[in-house]
Design goal:
This protein is mostly helical. Helix content is 44%, strand content 0%. The protein has one domain (61-337): Alpha/alpha barrel (Glycosyltransferase).
Length: 339
C-alpha cells in the first residue's frame, strides 16, 4: 500500500495553501519531491524565509547572534539560542537563505560547545545531556551548518551510547568520562535516576540518522545498532521504556505536537527510525497504525502538545487540525513506505 493510500482525504492540497508559507515550502520539498532548482520550490522557499514563521523567529535575534539572553542558550526556555536553533530547523530554515541563521549557529558553537564534543546546558562538559546533544546535532545538520567540530560531537555521542573509551562519572581524573546528567551508556540519564531515557535516545537516533552513511564510523554504526536494539526491544507503541519511578510511561508519548523540544512523541521516534531504514520493520507496524489512526476523516492530524506562549511564534490551536503536525505525520508515513 502506497503512503498516499493510507490517507483518509487529500491533505496535500490543504498543506499547499499559501496561508502557511513554511508548511507549503516543506510540503513541496518533502512530499512532492520538488528539486532544488524547481521555480515553484525556489519561490516557496524564499517566501517561507521572508514572510513565514522563520522570518518571525529571525527578527528576534540579537546583533551578536543570540536569542533571548547571552550565553550557552539553554535556560530561558524555549526562546534562548539552543531552543531557537532547534525550532528553526523544524521550520525548515536553511543557512543559505539568511545570514542571521549562520550567525546564530556560530554563536551557539562558541558558547554551548566544548572541545570534547559536548553540547551542554551551561557550556561545560559536565552539563551535557542526550536530549540537547541529539537535538542540536540534528538541527545543525538540517539547517546546513558545516563545522569540523561536529565530527567530535558525533564521536562523543556515539561513545556515550556504547561506553567505548569513557570512564565512570566518579573517575574525576579520567580524560573522558561520564557526568552527572550523561551518566552511563545506552541513553542513561541522571534525571531519569540513571536509567536509559527514551526521550533523549530518540534525539540521539535522529541525529545519527541525519549523518550521511559515508560519515558514519564503525563506532557510530555500533551506537546506532545498540539504539535500535533498545527501541525495538519492546513494541514501541507501548512506550514501555524505563521511567524514573517505574510507573506508567508519560502520556505525552501519544500527544503529537509542534514544535518538538525535549518532550518526545511516538511520531518523532518513527521519524528517527524510518530515516535509518526501519520503516518496514514489523516491530514498527503497531506504531505506524497508531499514527494512521490519529488522522481525522479529512486526513489531517490534530495539535495535541504545544508551546504556545513559550517559544517564538504560534503554530496553531490545540486539539484542532494542524498543518505542521499533519506534515510531520505524512513525511513519516511516506518515508516508512519506502523502507
Amino acid at each position: 500500500m502506497s503512503w498516499q493510500d493510507q490517507l483518509k482525504g487529500d491533505p496535500i492540497t490543504w498543506l499547499l495553501q499559501p496561508d502557511n508559507p513554511g508548511v507549503r515550502y516543506l510540503a513541496l520539498r518533502d512530499l512532492l519531491d520538488k528539486p532544488a532548482d524547481d521555480p515553484e520550490f525556489i519561490s516557496a522557499c524564499s517566501e517561507a524565509h521572508q514572510n513565514g514563521a522563520i522570518a518571525g523567529v529571525l527578527d528576534n535575534i540579537h546583533l551578536e547572534g543570540y536569542w533571548a539572553k547571552p550565553g550557552p542558550g539553554y535556560t530561558a526556555k524555549y526562546r534562548s539560542t539552543a531552543w531557537t536553533i532547534i525550532l528553526l530547523a523544524q521550520l525548515g530554515a536553511r543557512l543559505d537563505q539568511d545570514e542571521r541563521i549562520d550567525r546564530g549557529c556560530r554563536y551557539l558553537m562558541e558558547h554551548s560547545f566544548s572541545p570534547g564534543g559536548q553540547f551542554s546546558v551551561y557550556g561545560t562538559p559536565s552539563s551535557t545531556i542526550d536530549c540537547l546533544q541529539g537535538n542540536l546535532l540534528w538541527a545543525l545538520l538540517e539547517i546546513g551548518y558545516a563545522d569540523p567540530r561536529l565530527e567530535a560531537a558525533f564521536d562523543w555521542m556515539a561513545r556515550t551510547v556504547t561506553g567505548e573509551g569513557l570512564a565512570s562519572r566518579n573517575d574525576k581524573d579520567a580524560e573522558r568520562r561520564y557526568y552527572a546528567y550523561k551518566c552511563g551508556p545506552l541513553f542513561a540519564c541522571g534525571p531519569n535516576y540513571g536509567q536509559p531515557c527514551a526521550w533523549g535516545g530518540v534525539k540521539v537516533m535522529l541525529a545519527f540518522g541525519k549523518l550521511p552513511e559515508s560519515q558514519r564510523s564503525p563506532l557510530i554504526k555500533q551506537a546506532i545498532q545498540e539504539g535500535l536494539d533498545f527501541f525495538l526491544g519492546i513494541d514501541p507503541a507501548t512506550a514501555a521504556w524505563p521511567t524514573r519511578l517505574g510507573d506508567k510511561p508519560s502520556r505525552n508519548w501519544w500527544k503529537f505536537g509542534f514544535p518538538v523540544f525535549y518532550i518526545t512523541d511516538l511520531l518523532q521516534l518513527v521519524e528517527g527510525l524510518v530515516v535509518l531504514g526501519y520503516g518496514k520493520d514489523p516491530l514498527l507496524a503497531n506504531t505506524l497504525e497508531l499514527i494512521r489512526d490519529k488522522q481525522d476523516e479529512n486526513g489531517r492530524w490534530l495539535l495535541e502538545y504545544d508551546y504556545t506562549g513559550k517559544t517564538w511564534g504560534n503554530y496553531g490551536d490545540k486539539k484542532q487540525p494542524n498543518k505542521w503536525v499533519t506534515l510531520r505525520a505524512m513525511r513519516a508515513l511516506k518515508r516508512a513506505a519506502s523502507g
